[in-house]
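Please fill in the sequence for the structure shown.

STRUCTURE ENCODING:
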């Protein structure tokens, strides 16, 4: 080892001396560098570059910088119109959308805003003069073009929909930083009973992990918002006592979807108990209407009937027809308003509970179940096309034979009063469907987005 190397390793601890000796060191390095040939220079350049690449990789994947990396990624992608959050323009949109136009108006974060129920609730809140920010990950569980069309409708009415996942804590914190939300209307979820057998992980991701993440962000916020969220009638599972009442058993879920919604109700209890979050769960019963979900029977029956394809009508044990308490979207929106308007504030601050907070669960149904053959008959009448019926035994896929809501509690405490019967509601749905897809037998193929027309 040359004597200079020994000297280099023994830097003294006095800062002044370090500085001085460092300058000597760099002088020596510079003189050596001049004596290098071009081959050595290229070698050292490549080595330095490789080191830089490794350093950037470790920086990007280190958990401590993950959020800011994610953010910069989001901003970069925003330029390509893929994902867009963060930055001053984004914040301006968020603030504008969240501005309440009426006195004492609510300021609501609506998750799942590009979804069926989320779009209707967001539009109605905005119309009332409340401030609204939407959040949706635009996943492809069903036709994302339909979600984009709903987004277009929302943006026309001044509702900004942030593209992102409820599992992204950095994004949620940013939203809570920029806006003081009075309420969160949590509708983002992996919906659908049958798909749980195909992709169980997506239910855990959105309905459990995502819900916990959202509650974490709400608990940290100061002031904490009140939360209203969508549970489901599916929590009644194998319960056979009708009509379903909030005090009935909910410990026999028939599908993973139902189990994740039931888990959500228990998780809500925990966050209410520990952190003082005010939380209201709404058990929706088969919601239908314009801008609805293509994975639901009334929707894909309409498509099949118009295409002249057979519709599978399931029957339960002993050839009993399946029945659902179909609930029109406008009634559900009124129920959501009832829950938001009667929610008392959360009591915690800085992640700590300061007193007991409200914890509620309500059924939101129509109270008059209709069998599936009757649903098909109503669709035939409105579409003026005869359906090809294919009656088959119900497979074991998580569906339950019937649902029927008792809504007494919601009537008394939320002022909930469903008024739309299935005949009237389906007429409005069919009208929308024919306008949106252009009617005719070739409409609404999920792969034929070019045929879709947006005429809300
Ligand atoms: N429609 C019904 O009949 C019905 C019945 C019972 C309960 N519900 C519940 O009501 C809520 C709304 O249902 P819907 O019919 O509007 O469903 P939807 O699928 O149309 O809407 C849900 C939206 O959430 C979004 N989303 C899903 N996971 C997300 C995530 N991790 N991060 C961000 N966004 C995410 C989806 O992209 C979608 O746009 C859901 O919680 C659903 O489980 C609906």
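FILLED IN BY: designer on duty
SEQUENCE:
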């Amino acid at each position: 080892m040359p004597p200079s190397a020994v000297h280099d390793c023994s830097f003294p601890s006095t800062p002044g001396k370090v500085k001085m000796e460092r300058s000597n060191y760099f002088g020596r390095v510079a003189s050596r560098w001049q004596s290098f040939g071009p081959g050595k220079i290229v070698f050292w350049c490549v080595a330095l570059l490789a080191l830089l690449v490794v350093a950037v990789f470790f920086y990007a994947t280190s958990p401590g910088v993950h959020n800011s990396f994610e953010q910069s990624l989001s901003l970069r992608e925003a330029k390509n119109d893929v994902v867009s959050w963060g930055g001053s323009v984004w914040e301006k949109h968020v603030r504008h959308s969240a501005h309440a136009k009426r006195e004492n108006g609510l300021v609501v974060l609506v998750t799942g805003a590009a979804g069926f129920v989320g779009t209707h609730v967001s539009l109605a809140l905005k119309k009332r003069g409340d401030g609204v920010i939407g959040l949706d990950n635009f996943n492809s569980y069903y036709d994302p073009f339909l979600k984009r069309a709903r987004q277009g409708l929302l943006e026309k009415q001044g509702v900004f929909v942030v593209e992102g996942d409820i599992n992204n804590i950095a994004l949620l914190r940013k939203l809570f930083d920029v806006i003081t939300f009075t309420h969160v209307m949590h509708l983002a979820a992996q919906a659908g009973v049958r798909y749980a057998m195909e992709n169980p992980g997506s239910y855990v991701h959105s309905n459990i992990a995502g819900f916990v993440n959202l509650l974490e962000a709400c608990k940290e916020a100061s002031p904490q918002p009140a939360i209203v969220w969508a549970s489901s009638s599916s929590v009644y599972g194998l319960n056979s006592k009708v009509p379903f009442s909030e005090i009935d058993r909910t410990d026999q879920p028939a599908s993973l979807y139902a189990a994740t919604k039931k888990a959500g109700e228990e998780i809500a209890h925990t966050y209410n108990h520990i952190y003082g979050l005010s939380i209201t769960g709404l058990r929706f019963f088969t919601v239908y209407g314009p801008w609805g979900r293509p994975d639901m029977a009334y929707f894909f029956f309409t498509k099949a009937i118009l295409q002249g394809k057979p519709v599978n009508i399931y029957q339960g044990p002993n050839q009993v027809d399946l029945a659902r308490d179909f609930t029109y979207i406008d009634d559900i929106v009124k129920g959501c308003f009832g829950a938001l308007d009667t929610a008392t504030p959360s009591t915690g601050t800085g992640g700590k509970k300061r007193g007991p907070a409200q914890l509620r669960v309500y059924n939101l149904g129509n109270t008059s179940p209709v069998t599936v053959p009757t649903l098909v008959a109503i669709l035939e009448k409105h579409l003026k096309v005869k359906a090809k019926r294919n009656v088959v035994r119900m497979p074991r896929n998580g569906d339950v034979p019937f649902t029927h809501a008792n809504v007494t509690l919601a009537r008394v405490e939320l002022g909930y009063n469903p008024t739309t019967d299935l005949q009237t509601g389906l007429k409005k749905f069919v009208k929308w469907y024919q306008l949106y897809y252009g009617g005719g037998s070739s409409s609404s193929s999920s792969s034929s987005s070019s045929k879709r027309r947006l005429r809300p």
